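User: Please fill in residues for this 229-position structure.
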């Protein structure tokens, strides 16, 4: 399962893009509002950091069909990368109409705010490149978020669609791993959960033990220093 970073914080994007094998960045109006400032410059800065070969997902803010079409095309034109710029459109009737029209013209559309397998099916039939089911938001209303992703994965497998699942809205590492097990194609993960994917206290103590044992026997030298002699 591919991992994408869910933030518009440039410091976090630089860090994770350098050290973690992320496949791109997702944003939405709420995420962008947290950073404030010049939002167009922010989006351009994100693209500059991650490069042209990674995905950048940007959500429309217009709600009327004609304006969604114009805004979606303007987003892609501004960022200058049709292949790896995906326009996020919410799962509504107008959103499905816009998804069909834009996907027919070769634009990559991520249908977002998906809460049911039925919505995902309709989005796929409309030509969406991705559907983004909200895992924790479902769990928070006593629904089965991971199970919904599993249902979508089964439907997509049976139908043979090219639409991929980009699971979103995670509060725990377990949720991320659970959707990976059920066949999710990609997950977009916030900075806090992303760090927890790697962190473990036993890993830390093991590394400390390696360093301590080495130092007791060989002092401050390293294998590199020995090899360079």
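Assistant: Residues filled in for all 229 positions:
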């Amino acid at each position: 399962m591919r991992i994408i970073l869910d933030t518009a914080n440039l410091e976090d994007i630089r860090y994770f893009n350098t050290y973690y094998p992320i496949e791109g960045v997702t944003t939405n109006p709420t995420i962008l509002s947290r950073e404030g400032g010049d939002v167009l410059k922010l989006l351009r800065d994100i693209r500059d950091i991650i490069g042209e070969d990674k995905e950048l997902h940007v959500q429309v803010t217009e709600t009327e069909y004609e304006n969604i079409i114009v805004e979606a095309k303007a987003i892609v034109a501004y960022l200058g990368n049709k292949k790896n710029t995906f326009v996020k459109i919410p799962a509504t009737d107008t959103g499905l109409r816009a998804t069909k029209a834009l996907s027919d013209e070769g634009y990559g559309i991520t249908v977002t705010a998906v809460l049911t397998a039925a919505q995902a099916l309709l989005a796929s039939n409309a030509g969406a490149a991705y559907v983004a089911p909200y895992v924790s938001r479902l769990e928070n209303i006593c629904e089965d978020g991971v199970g919904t992703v599993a249902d979508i994965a089964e439907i997509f497998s049976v139908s043979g669609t090219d639409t991929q699942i980009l699971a979103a809205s995670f509060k725990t590492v377990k949720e991320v791993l659970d959707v990976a097990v059920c066949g999710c194609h990609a997950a977009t993960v916030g900075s806090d959960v992303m760090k927890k994917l790697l962190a473990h206290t036993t890993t830390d103590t093991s590394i400390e033990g390696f360093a301590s044992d080495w130092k007791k026997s060989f002092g401050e030298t390293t294998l590199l220093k020995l090899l360079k002699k």
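For context: The beta strands are 2-6, 24-26, 55-59, 85-90, 108-114, 130-133, 164-167, 186-189.
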